[in-house]
Design a protein that fits this description.
By secondary structure, the protein is α+β, with helices and mostly antiparallel strands. It has two helices and 18 strands.
Amino acid sequence: MDKALYIAMSGAKQNMLSQTAHANNLANASTHGFKADFAQARSMPVFYGPGHPSRAFALSERPATNFNPGPMMETGRALDIAIEGDGFIAVQAPNGEEAYTRVGSLFVDSLGMVKTGNNLPVLGNGGPIALPPAATIEIAIDGSITVVPLEQGVEAVVLADRIKLVNPPLETLHKAEDGLFHRMEAEEDVVADARIRVTSGFLEGSNVNAVHELTSVMQLSRQYEMQVKIMQAAKEESESSARLLQNS
């Protein structure tokens, strides 16, 4: 009886954690460049002190991220870019480390720094990209940024920098709580990959399947109700056993 109670109790708790993962995916169904998290459940033996692990508990986890590309959404804005196929844009994370993202909604701040929509500096050939005051800014298919300085004609076009585009092995990356992808072993930075191409005037949409996430949340909700019923049944059986012992 205590086995059933323990499994049901841990299962109900892990059901709530799984619902959190799927609800987070569903909430980001319209977030540009968002990659959905996978979720899975498994049973784990309980090792406590000497003896055989006769008890088990449920465990929910996010083992990986879905790296499939999302749909291309046209914006017509010159500083919006979307990566064609595999690859990432290198940015400077809030902790100063190099991190990677697929969010290509860029802008230039008052100091001339090129940043993503969530205010992270975009990295170039020698660090964060800084542009001079310019009349026009264009991003080429290879990530090169060309500008026409203020009060000058198109004949004065200047190659300012090139966005660092990388394509590290996916198994070496993990998605952190900041929404960025970090290397599991960040001993040295990833080298830029010249084969990656970007499309200007587009943004990548989320790869979340809203229907799948919604049905998963509903299924987990029904599983939670089942776990609660098992706990209630275990309680009733315990009370019945206590009454039998009292009458004997």
